[in-house]
Specification:
alpha+beta, nine-stranded mixed beta sheet, 22 helices, 50% helix, 17% strand
Length: 721
């Protein structure tokens, strides 16, 4: 108990997180019973007050427990207020048909492949009677790109002619839940419009400060365009200096990811930490001049950190890192320096109070895990070896930082990204010093461009050459043998067990506790048992999986640890999209990626309208075009019937000529047709499943059990910043 006395905000943050997670799983406690809970807490407070007044020693720990209980309750309450209590005029509560809407752009442009995407704050909607109804809430607005499309500005007020639609959820097992990801940002709908479907009415920025920040980032981007013109180096400079990743090509992303250097291209704690180190080098001596000097150092540090955050457009990852380092600077400037873990706990506490669902953000989790790992492990690793040569000593220090960060973040990286960069030590020896030079040089170029453009041009030229060299070296590491270990699957149980093993192992050595090391060994055995059980369960699977993919019939035939994917009309150009939709399920099932097991869905008949095939012991009939003109001379029996391209006009006709256990409405049908067929099936008492409406379908061939939409929610959802 006394161990925790030095870390109050670590305790408070854990309690706050528990409240947030409890709200997500038991929202009724806050929605229906909040006054009962509040009354109970008040009653406990009164009891503890009297226990202290009359010195009941046995109740001495209840004060702390009550405080943690109150903070947990507040965590759930903050979550409910921010995300689950929309205003009465929120667009989720609009029941009328919408023909148009009016609102304001509240974010800079995010360039997608075919669209410009904006956060769009709704002000009014126009219903089918042309009535204007005040509304609120934020949607994603996608504007189709063409040669005449120009980026809109923060604060532009638009009148849009069209509809917004709910963001669809995942349709295939283990597919990324983009709907949940957006809901945790209070975004529930999106709209796709052409450039002729909207009109700019005016410019009314909701925040002058954010407008200034975005204008500053735009001006900085234009300076980079002026002095670093090579496309690859230009994209990297914008990503590294400003956090604009729209111009990074896929080859660069793959190379940096394989080399374990992708964090350099995402403005976050590393970059803010470099800024803070620069401030330490330039103004660190102020701390030695007394209390006023410490205050001056703290003020300068915080101002420069937030100036950099403003230049980067105040992205969420930079806001987190800036808050964290600002608190570190404040603690160093105060009369007494706080415990670094308590400072980190305080930073997390503030961030989660403002935005409770940051706990689900991958960036938030990785940032704090990496910093805690570096703070605790790096000094211990660094003391293992000593070098007299300064260059070797600095290289060893960077290596220790890389090892500490990887140990702290590997379980999360495996859980979210399913890969491990083998040569991360080599690449980080290159990119961390290079990132420091590029950041210093880049900021210098932006600052002096208006005063000494000739010098800014020279700096830009040098930066471009340095980035070219770093890119070539990163590309070389990328092509090393086995540079990236891929296809790693870690589920939630495995994630917590892995962290349990690591933490108890480190604690066992730190406290020289044999009991703690025994717990670590037991967790490792449990981890092996869990994986063995998972593999045994997989070996017993005998299933057909019908995926919801665009305009294709895609069927996975799974037999234990092997699988074959059958697709009609497969082209190589379809591979990337199919892999995105199907490979998450393959990975979670410990199967090979689809690239190694694709077969065309062949037919046993010569009729182009009807295909007949067998997969496993299931006979499948596929209708691909209109069949009313075909004369069937006998009743046909099959296990499954798949209807594509609205080939069957009436299920009554189908029931007359065919008998099947299940009718599947395929992916090649519009939504209204699926709904029409489902209505007919209900009237005819037919068993039916629509892939578009109901999502992927799994049929257990061993037990004959049909399982609907096997979407597995994750405790932590991927939330890239």
């Amino acid at each position: 108990m006394y161990f925790w006395n030095s870390y109050p905000f670590v305790r408070f943050t854990i309690a706050l997180i528990m409240g947030i997670l409890c709200y997500d799983h038991f929202p009724s406690i806050w929605a229906q019973y909040q006054w009962k809970v509040i009354s109970g807490i008040l009653l406990l407070s009164v009891l503890i007050y009297f226990s202290r007044k009359y010195s009941f020693y046995k109740l001495r720990h209840f004060n702390g427990l009550l405080a943690l209980l109150i903070i947990s309750f507040l965590g759930g309450y903050f979550t409910m207020i921010k995300y689950h209590q929309q205003e009465k005029n929120h667009y989720l509560n609009t029941n009328k048909e919408v023909s148009g809407f009016i609102g304001i752009i509240t974010s800079p442009v995010n360039e997608r492949t075919n669209h410009h995407r904006y956060n769009f704050k709704l002000l009014q909607v126009i219903d089918e009677n042309d009535s204007i109804i005040p509304t609120s809430g934020i949607i994603h607005l996608y504007i189709k790109k063409d040669s005449s499309t120009q980026s809109l500005l923060y604060g532009d007020k638009l009148a849009v002619y069209g509809k917004y639609h709910p963001v669809p959820g995942p349709d295939n097992p283990f597919e990324f839940n983009y709907k949940q990801y957006l809901e945790r940002q209070n975004i529930y709908a999106h709209a796709f419009v052409d450039h002729d479907q909207f009109k700019v009415v005016s410019n009314e920025p909701p925040s002058r400060f954010f407008q200034w920040a975005y204008d500053l980032r735009t001006a900085s981007s234009e300076v980079i365009d002026k002095y670093i013109q090579q496309p690859r180096e230009n994209g990297i400079a914008k990503a590294l200096l400003l956090g604009i990743k729209d111009h990074l090509d896929n080859d660069v992303k793959r190379a940096y990811s394989s080399a374990g250097a992708m964090h350099v291209l995402a403005v976050s704690g590393l970059h803010v930490g470099i800024i803070y180190l620069i401030v330490q080098l330039l103004f660190g001596k102020l701390k030695q001049t007394g209390r006023l000097g410490k205050y001056a150092f703290g003020i300068i540090s915080i101002l420069l950190i937030w100036l950099y955050a403003t230049v980067t457009g105040l992205s969420p990852s930079v806001l987190r890192a800036s808050t964290m380092f600002s608190l570190v600077a404040f603690s160093q400037a105060s009369a007494r320096e706080g415990n670094i873990y308590n400072t980190l706990g305080f930073a997390a506490f503030i961030l989660l109070c403002v935005d409770p669902y940051l706990i689900y953000s991958v960036g938030f989790q990785l940032s704090f895990a990496a910093v805690i790992g570096i703070v605790y492990l790096q000094p211990k690793l660094y003391r293992l070896l000593s070098f007299r040569i300064v260059l070797f000593d600095k290289a060893w220090a960077i290596t220790c930082v890389s090892i500490a960060a990887q140990l702290a973040t590997f379980p999360l990286s495996a859980y979210y990204f399913h890969q491990f960069p083998t040569y991360f030590l080599v690449s980080n020896l290159l990119v961390i010093p290079a990132a420091s030079i590029l950041l210093i040089g880049g900021m210098s170029m932006l600052l002096i461009e208006s005063i000494l453009p000739a010098l800014a041009k020279i700096i830009g030229y040098c930066l471009a050459k340095l980035m070219w060299g770093i890119n070539e070296l990163i590309g070389l590491v990328h092509f090393f043998p086995n540079s990236l270990i891929e296809w790693i699957f870690l589920d939630q149980v495995g994630l917590f067990l892995t962290y349990g093993i690591v933490l108890t192992f480190i604690a066992g050595f730190h406290f020289r506790s044999f009991k703690t090391l025994t717990i670590s060994s037991s967790l490792f055995i449990l981890f092996l048992f869990w994986n063995l059980t998972t593999h045994q369960n997989q070996s017993r699977r005998h299933e057909l999986v019908f995926y919801e993919v665009s305009d294709k019939t895609a069927i996975d035939y799974i037999q234990g640890h092997s699988a074959d994917l059958y697709i009609d009309g497969f082209n190589d150009s379809d591979l990337e999209l199919l892999a995105f939709q199907i490979n998450p399920h393959r990975l979670a099932s410990h199967l090979d990626p689809i690239e190694y097991s694709i077969s065309n869905l062949d037919s046993d008949t010569s009729n182009s309208a009807i295909k007949a095939t067998s997969i496993g012991d299931k006979k499948i009939i596929i209708f691909d075009s209109t069949t009313y003109h075909i004369d069937f001379h006998q009743f046909i029996t099959a296990d499954l019937v798949i209807i594509n391209n609205q080939a069957v006009k009436s299920l009554e006709w189908l029931k007359k000529h065919f008998q099947a256990e299940l009718v599947i409405i395929g992916n090649k049908n519009p939504g209204y047709y699926s709904r029409k067929m489902k209505q007919q099936a209900a009237e005819l008492n037919l068993n039916i499943h629509s892939l578009k409406e109901d999502g992927a379908l799994t049929i257990d061939l061993k037990n004959g059990i049909k399982k609907e939409r096997t979407i597995t929610p994750a405790l932590f959802t991927t939330n890239p910043d």
